[in-house]
Amino acid sequence: MSCAVESRRIRRTALIAGVGVATVLGGCGQREFDRSPPRPPVAARITGVITPAQVTVSPSRIDAGRIALVVSNRDRDSHAVILEGGRTLEQVGPINPQDTATIMAEVTQGSYAIRAGSERAVNASEQIEPARLVVGQRRPG
Asked: What is the mean pLDDT of the chain?
């Protein structure tokens, strides 16, 4: 192999390596990623279950912000689900037996009730015990 061919091969390799290094270093030093508009915060996921005796939710204590309340109906009757507290009143349903539904809401600090309503709810002795959701202060950031 001649000295001229070897010299060209070394220069070509050096050029390719230099372009690669310049590309990698070009992205360095950028402190913040500019996103316009910023993404909304992720909703806290809360699960709820309707049984013949009560409504339960987990977790029952959360921070203020956006929530996704996913409720499963394990009763034999269809039920509308109501999230009520503060200035929030959201409803979904009726949810058929063995089905689920989701309520999306923005909750602030306070106490909330999650109720399951049906035709049985007219008689006090047949009402399903509501769940309680306690909402604390919004976390920073």
From this structure: 80
- H/E stretch holding 23 reads helix 3-26
Regarding pTM above 0.90, the answer is no
CA dist., res. 65 & res. 50, Å (int): 24
For 95-106, the pLDDT digits (tens) are 999 999 999 999
Cβ partners under 8 Å of residue 33, min gap 6: none
SS3 string of the chain?
CCHHHHHHHHHHHHHHHHHHHHHHHHCCCCCCCCCCCCCCCCCEEEEEEECCCEEEEECCEEECEEEEEEEEECCCCCEEEEEEECCEEEEEEEECCCCEEEEEEEECCEEEEEEEECHHHHCHHHCCECEEEEEECCCCC
